[in-house]
Design a protein that fits this description.
Radius of gyration: 23 Å
CATH topology: Immunoglobulin-like
Structural class: mainly beta
Order of helices and strands: HEEEEEEEEEEE
CATH class: Mainly Beta
Distance between the termini: 84 Å
Strand content: 35-45%
Largest sheet: 9 strands, antiparallel
């Protein structure tokens, strides 16, 4: 009699453990498909696409955006200029952020983002995310850089998706520069040994 209780209790414990294991045990956790793509624009912008997932009539692309310029950049300037296009030509339009409609990134900062698109993604194949479709991809002076990233769709189903896009976790862009050494320069090779 007692063994019939142990099996459901063990299964429930395993499911609870799976919910908080940081994906050590996977039951289709809904993290989507890894993208691992990066595009550097001539205007000193970098967009990293980390993952894509879809559920119902929404799709989400997790991104990290870096603004290396000395001026603010917009990654969804205007109306209907940012979207995902599928292999069949269907467009899934970006759902604007309620707090940052143009996806503005301050100069010298980087932010993490969840870009939400309205529409149903196919379950396989590829799609292309396009940000700022109206701008040129090669203009080094633009503040609205055109970005195109290919997204794999296999394994992208599952998980919950917020209603709107959002940017968060603003921090400085890590930078370094080459310059002349201060305080006498290098002592390399001056140890007095031969």
């Amino acid at each position: 009699m007692r063994s019939s209780f142990i099996a459901p209790a063990a299964l429930a414990s395993l499911c609870l453990l799976g919910a908080c294991d940081n994906d050590l045990i996977s039951f289709g956790s809904g993290n989507g498909a890894a993208v691992d793509a990066q595009v550097a624009h001539k205007s000193s912008a970098v967009v990293q696409a980390l993952s894509v997932r879809s559920s119902g009539d929404r799709a989400l692309v997790s991104v990290r955006i870096l603004n290396g310029r000395d001026r603010e950049m917009k990654f969804d300037a205007g109306t209907e200029h940012s979207y995902i296009v599928t292999d069949t030509g269907e467009k899934l339009m970006l759902v604007k952020s309620a707090t940052n409609a143009d996806l503005e990134i301050p100069p010298g900062k980087m932010m993490d983002g969840t870009l939400v698109f309205a529409g149903n993604l196919p379950t396989s194949g590829r799609a292309t995310m396009i940000l700022n479709a109206h701008d040129g991809a090669s203009n080094p002076y633009t503040l609205n850089p055109r970005i195109e990233i290919s997204l794999p769709l296999d394994g992208s189903r599952g998980g919950s998706i917020p209603k709107t896009s959002a940017l968060a976790n603003m921090r400085p862009v890590p930078m370094s520069k080459f310059a002349a050494a201060q305080g006498g320069g290098s002592t390399f090779g001056n140890s007095g040994q031969s």
